[in-house]
Amino acid sequence: MKKGLFLFFLFTISYSLAQNSKHQVIVLGIDGLNNYRFDEAYTPHFDYLKQHASWTLHAQANEPLSSSPNWKSIITGTTPEKHLITENGFSRKVYKNNPTCEEEPKKFPTIFTMIKRDNPKAKVGLFEHWGAFWRLVKGDKLNRKFWWEFKPKPSVKRAMAFYKKRNTTLSFIQIDQCDHAGHKYGHESAEYVKAVEQADELLGIVLKTINEKDNFKNTTLIVVADHGGKGNSHGAGTPEGMNIPLFIMGSNIKAGYEIKNTTVKNEDVAVMVLKALGIKPHKCWTAKYIDEIYLSN
After folding, report:
1. How many angstroms separate the Cα of 144 from the Cα of each of 114, 172, 231, 273?
2. What are phi and psi of 172, to 5 degrees?
3. Which residues, listed in sequence order, are joined to residue 221 by a DSSP beta bridge?
4. In whole angstroms, what is the distance from residue 70 CA to residue 65 CA?
5. Is 253 helix (H, G, I), strand (E, B) or coil?
6. 7: Cβ–Cβ under 8 A, 6 or more apart, which residues?
7. pLDDT in tens, 267-283
8. Which site among 10, 66, 197, 251 is 20 to 30 Å from 228 CA-CA?
9. Predicted model pTM
10. Backbone dihedral region of 288: left (phi > 0), alpha (psi from -120 to 50 degrees) or beta?
């Protein structure tokens, strides 16, 4: 009897450790975050990432420089030429194109699809702040999904509550206030700088939650934008529109490291998410690993 209780105790301890050591990923996507207003904004949490993460302010967005094509690239690891989302997805006709991946006749595979295929019990959540984003993941199996009716701060707090559950695998957050300020007031405006500072505050909530939970021991954080902007537009064809920030922080990621690779693109986020989770990317994806950021491979 005592032996049985002892074995049960060991099993419980082992199971608990296995659960707690399971890696988690958080993606914080900031719509319309350009790379040239940081110096004018008060951004202590982005400054913290520069000191503790691998980062670049010159990752590349995709043409066409609209939100739906670029968010689709971020979650599918490929370009608009491949996933065929080439305009903003408010209309259903945007999604009537056939995927170019022969193995996926219905829909180009997303990071959510790949995680669920690897482990159907994996917990994945989406917390987004832009009304057309949900069409990009229509048909994906999500354990939590909060759509655009929630404001950014409540969405981030809901995402962090989801993340703190020890069996959560991916928490994907998309916030929109920088893009909104860029369109309404212009990317060169004081209002836009305020929106960047608000995004920094939300990043602070994410960092605080991770540090309290496991201090990045079993968590990878990726912060990315879909595009930048110039004037009141996305700045199509301009460096201000195409160059975007990208930050990656985790236990196996170099700290305070500015990425030298000049060909990094926003769709590379997808393969980095799966690499952190030990999952192979889909063969139809075209994204590449940013090998230089890893302490070991």
Report:
1. 17, 10, 36, 18
2. -110, 120
3. 26, 249
4. 7
5. strand
6. none
7. 999 999 999 999 999 99
8. 251
9. 0.91
10. beta
Instruction: Tell me the C-alpha distance between 65 and 297, whole Å.
Output: 33
Structure tokens at 267: 């769709």
CA distance 241 to 13: 51
* pLDDT tens readout for residues 40-65: 999 999 999 999 999 999 999 999 99
Q: Are 25 and 210 in contact (CB under 8 A)?
A: no
Beta strands at 144-146 and 123-128: parallel, antiparallel or unpaired: parallel
Sequence-distant contacts of 228-232: CB under 8 A, at least 24 apart:
228/32, 228/33, 228/34, 228/35, 228/36, 228/61, 228/187, 229/32, 229/34, 229/179, 229/182, 229/187, 230/34, 230/187, 231/186, 231/187, 231/188, 232/182, 232/183, 232/184, 232/185, 232/186, 232/187
Complete edge-to-edge strand list for the sheet that includes strand 219-224: 144-146, 123-128, 168-175, 24-30, 219-224, 243-249, 54-60, 257-258
Q: Which residue has the tokens 């999952």?
A: 279
User: Across the strands, what pairs with 258?
Assistant: 55
CA–centroid distance for 95 within its chain: 22
Rounded to the nearest angstrom, the gap between the alpha carbon of residue 80 and the centroid of all alpha carbons in its chain is: 18
